[in-house]
Amino acid sequence: MSELLQGREILIVEDEHMVRKHLVKFFENAGASCTGVATFEEGKNALANLDFDYAWVDVHLPDGLGLDLLEVAKANGDIPVVIMTAAGGVEMAVDAMRLGAADYLTKPFDPREAPLVLARVEAGRRSSRLQSHARKSNNVSSDDAGLFFGSALEGFRSQLDKVLAVEGRLKSQLPPILIEGETGTGKTTVARWLHANGARANKELVVVNCAALPEQLAEAELFGHEKGAFTDAKQARIGLFEAADGGTLFLDEIASLSESLQAKVLTAIEESRIRKVGSTKDISVNVRLITASNRPLEQMVKEGSFREDLYHRLNLLKFEIPPLRERGGDAVRLAQHLLAQLCLKYRMKNAAFSPRCIKWIERYEWPGNVRELQHEIERAMILGDAEALEFVGIGERLGDQPSQAQGEGPVWLKPGWSIPQEGFSVETAVIEFIELALAQTGGNRTQAAKLLGVNRDYIRYRLTRKDKGAE
Ligand SMILES: Nc1ncnc2c1ncn2[C@@H]1O[C@H](COP(=O)(O)OP(=O)(O)OP(=O)(O)O)[C@@H](O)[C@H]1O
Predict the structure, then answer these.
(1) Which tens digit of pLDDT belongs to each residue from 42-96?
(2) 470: Cβ–Cβ under 8 A, 6 or more apart, which residues?
(3) Which residues does the UniProt record annotate as the domain Sigma-54 factor interaction (predicted)?
(4) Less Cβ crowding at N or C end of the chain, within 10 Å?
(5) Does residue 378 have a pLDDT over 50?
(6) What distance in Å separates the CA atoms of residue 277 and residue 81, rounded to the nearest whole number?
(7) Which residues' Cβ are closer than 6 Å to ligand 1?
(8) What pLDDT does 167 receive?
């Protein structure tokens, strides 16, 4: 807890001499630097001209209301303010929180309560930072119970189990983990699984796609910044390392970070310390780091595009997820697993792959790996015939396209066609119409029926008659 106070700059605005003195002494003994002032004006000047991590402000000051300093603190780097109210001043405390105070304490209080209050303030700041990160990156949390290992990932699973067993004993300062694999092989899913099954499961997991961080803002996003550190830094902000303190930080596409940021990440791993942009102080953080790359980092080190020292640090616990095309029969089993999950999502009961679709799953190379497979299933479930799911596009790529998707429509639809002398079967035309509509709707019978102005049962009936050779 005292780590929270170590090296922090704290302003105390309190007119009662003894209270101020006690607080200053307590904070300084805990390693913080304190500025104690007695009036509203002094408090206002200090907030406007000096940098503080926190301010402790008494409500009633001889020359003004301490609550009015909340606005000043907000305008000068959004410094968290803890309001000190007199006994019974609950209404005042409620007002203070409404006006943006980070927390409050009722006097008299034991200064040993102060670190607890600061821990609450920090937790609040972290959680609002995480909320804004999640909003910005549109983080969708995946179902951790949904990870399918299968026989191809059996060895991988037992390695992960060993890591988790060691973690259980270590508790803090967990070694970083590197996960490599082509895009869509499940690196993020594995990172989530590791977090959910590890010692920090009840703490935050912060997922960051480094490739999506704008280069000029990446450092501030990861490590935070002080007020005025750059043109748009109107307020100080904590970074994602700090937001993940006590929990897990997953840096996806780590190779997208610039060399200087790679160096900063290395320092964060080795020394468990970070420094905000524009700050002169280090902050200690305790983060379980998981990194991922879809290009082999060893290769990138050889090419000179990834720092060797960071690679060696990450290489200690490296896991490689094989592409889907190398997982043999697991591709079909994984497809069944994903289908079962999607059925729950879409509340569907009888969805199943058609026999030839199963063959396509086995034959296709899946360059987009599990993500591509998942998308194909989802698309077929929404657009196709759920009871006989088919991946129309993939079938075409494999040269095994459904007959109705091949042609450009029945011959009698071509310009210049006229009814031949030997006659023309309306029954055949109906079937060809149905096939055309099915081709247009990717095999979706409901949509095809809508296009043709008939009901789904009519289509089913006609196709069954055709299969029985009735036409
Ligand atoms: N083994 C698996 N079991 C169940 N679902 C999986 C598995 N692997 C991947 N998925 C699913 O596939 C999709 C892609 O996985 P994920 O995002 O983890 O891949 P990634 O390797 O991190 O991709 P990228 O390199 O693009 O970041 C996710 O929706 C995930 O739920």
Answers:
(1) 999 999 888 888 999 999 899 999 999 999 998 887 889 999 887 666 677 777 8
(2) 427
(3) 153-382
(4) N
(5) yes
(6) 22
(7) 142, 146-148, 181, 183-189, 252, 294, 370-371, 374
(8) 79
Please state, in angstroms and rounded to a whole number, the distance separating the CA atoms of residues 124 and 116. Answer: 12
Q: Quick one: pLDDT at residue 14?
A: 94
Q: CA dist 225 to 50, 162, 428, Å?
A: 16, 37, 72
**Cα three-residue angle 354-355-361, rounded to 5 degrees:** 90
User: Which own/partner contact pairs does 58-61 have at CB distance under 8 Å and 24+ positions apart?
Assistant: 58/13, 58/14, 58/15, 58/16, 58/19, 58/83, 58/84, 59/83, 59/84, 59/85, 59/86, 59/89, 59/92, 59/96, 60/15, 60/86, 61/13, 61/15
pLDDT at 149 over 70: yes
Tokens of 43: 């408090």
Q: What is the CATH number of domain 326-467?
A: 1.10.8.60
What tokens appear for 279 in the block? 């700050």
Percent of all residues in the chain with a pLDDT value above 70, rounded to a whole number: 89
Does residue 184 come out as left (phi exceeding 0), alpha (psi in the -120 to 50 range) or beta? left
| Contact in structure between 338 and 291 (CB atoms under 8 Å) | no
Q: Which atom of ligand 1 approaches the CA of 143 most closely? A: 31
**Ligand 1 atom with minimal separation from the 191 CA:** 18
- The domain defined by 2-124 folds into Rossmann fold (3.40.50)
Q: For residue 383, is it left (φ>0), alpha (ψ between -120 and 50) or beta? A: alpha
Structure tokens at 89: 């001043």
> DSSP class of residue 285?
-
Domain residue limits, the chain: 2-124, 144-322, 326-467
If residue 318 lies in a helix (H) or strand (E), which one and from where to where? strand 318-320
Cα 370 to averaged position of ligand 1 atoms, centre (Å): 6
Instruction: Return the DSSP state at 4.
Output: G
Which of 138, 142, 178, 371 for mutating ligand 1's site (highest number of atoms within 8 Å of CB)? Answer: 371
Q: Mean pLDDT score of the chain, rounded to an integer?
A: 84
The ipTM (two decimal places) reads: 0.99
